Amino acid sequence: MTRRPTFSVQAPAAVVMVRPYHFTVNTETAVDNRFQATDNSGTDFAPLAYAEITRAAETLRQHGVDVHLFEDTGTDTPDSVFPNNWFSTHAGGHVAIYPMKAPNRRRERRADVIDMLKSRYRVQEVIDYSGLEPDGLFLEGTGAMVLDHIDRVAYAVRSDRTDPIALERFCTQFNFEPMAFAAEDENGVAVYHTNVLMCIATDFAMIGLDMISNAARRREIVDRIERSGRDVVALSHAQIASFAGNAIELQGREGRILALSTTAFAALTKDQIAKISESATPVALDIPTIERAGGSVRCTLAGIHLAPRS
Length: 310
What we know:
It is built from eleven helices and 15 strands. It is of the alpha/beta class. It has one domain: L-arginine/glycine Amidinotransferase, Chain A (5-stranded Propeller).
């Protein structure tokens, strides 16, 4: 396969991260997030989570990624460490703000983040979908959708957090083709977010194919990924449970990197790592405390696909 140049619209060179001061597992989202830990054993996880995000941000900066690190000192936003769910950015100067299912997640939306984007990057418009929440229509950002910025496809697992009306509205306004599908784990439990089972990079896609319940739809997705010029890296149920699908490709100083957790990296095979390394250097971030909340590295990073101001 002919590899694309180092620069890629798929791999942002800058991200937003949120460092929590009072991290805890969100009880409002535990109903449909089977990745969350259920036994918290009375441990104070806040200092550990704070340190993990601090180290992760520093590691990404060492690789040349521009990290905009925001602080969350509040106690009523337990999932604030996952900013990719409430906003996304897009080439051409577009920003989307999303409707969230859990009421306490709606409080994560921050004007100072949007103001920073407007001051540091060229933002032409901000489209706010949060007004859909009273109607029970939810679309939790790049958790609900895994976006192919090159081929313009929005892959989306059907769930309570991915409403088809909201998905269609986003795709129409942001020029993506929706590709929705049903997915479940090995116990038949529906997957709550697409980005736990799928990662689209420039030259490859990591995906839990066995979780896509409809065989015909599974073949369509594989065909679409391969027609876009990518290799398919199939992930097992066990690898998905270790957050191997929850990764994101970024533009580093020396080339593209694949940011993922140490848990995820340890779950990959040598052949999978070799395939990934052909076009992106794996960078493992140690965030086991954060992962107790049901999300991993990709969830903690909101990519910035905007042109910086001079």
